[in-house]
Amino acid sequence: MDLLIPFGLSNTTNEVIEPHEADRGRACDAYCPGCKTPLLSRHPQDTETRIHFAHDSRHPKASKKTIQDCPFNGPLAIALMARALAPQLSGESLSNPELNIRVSCKLCNSEIFTDSVSIKNSITIKKAESSYTKFGALFDLRIELGNASILIWLAYADRPLPEIEYKNLERIGVLKIDVNSFDSFQFKRGTKSFQDSVKDFLLLDGKREWIYHPAEKKRATEKAKENNHSCVVFECSKCNSKWFHDVKKMPECPKKCAIRYTKKSMNQTKIAYEDTFFISRY
What we know:
Elements: E1 8-10, E2 16-17, E3 30-31, E4 39-42, E5 52-55, H1 64-68, H2 74-84, E6 93-96, E7 99-105, E8 111-118, E9 121-124, E10 127-134, E11 137-144, E12 149-155, E13 172-178, H3 184-189, H4 194-205, E14 208-212, H5 216-227, E15 230-236, E16 242-246, E17 262-264, E18 269-270, H6 273-276, E19 277-281
Parallel strand pairs: 12-13
Antiparallel strand pairs: 1-2, 1-3, 4-5, 6-9, 7-8, 7-19, 10-11, 11-12, 13-14, 15-16, 15-17, 15-18
């Protein structure tokens, strides 16, 4: 994803500045967010190339090695701009994807039910903060929605999603947005500012999926109780295998022995959702 350098930081205010807002050349008075090297604002004559920043390699404070090692690339630029947008997001609408869940029993491997947790919709942001730490990882944004919140993780190469402790997510959702779904071609050919492009990507256009929805555990628990799933241990007198099996289904030996060798090993047991149910999302 080649976005050149779509924004810099002002030497005077330390705030985000875009190339079209800056004076030409060194007069832009900005530096690179990735390596701190002074920038040049370039205003190409051709209409094919957007106004952009570039490292000022001839500046007295510039280092060739620092420029070569600069980590500032397209995905990081999008993530940093998204974080910078946090104070502007109050009152904006955030697009949410639909979420369906499939609940299975860990003991007998039976699919218990499938259900819809959330339809595709938009929700109003009450407040947003950037760089929120949870599970030992730095999430890009935390979105407040009143009595619940959403942690947003902007995913790109070399930035895998952290391990989520689902038991510690009461009223907290986790939403992953794929940075690679940002339309860099449209940005380079269009006139919309980088800030506005990233804002639209974050709130509406970016490919997103629920890693965890605040309502899914409650929904799954309610449906599990309605379903009244139970499984029991069976054993095979021929091969001595033992296994959990859904009481609503005909038992079958894992080694395919004849059913006449199969019998119950213990009394029927009700299974508690928190301990033995597994949720998959789609």
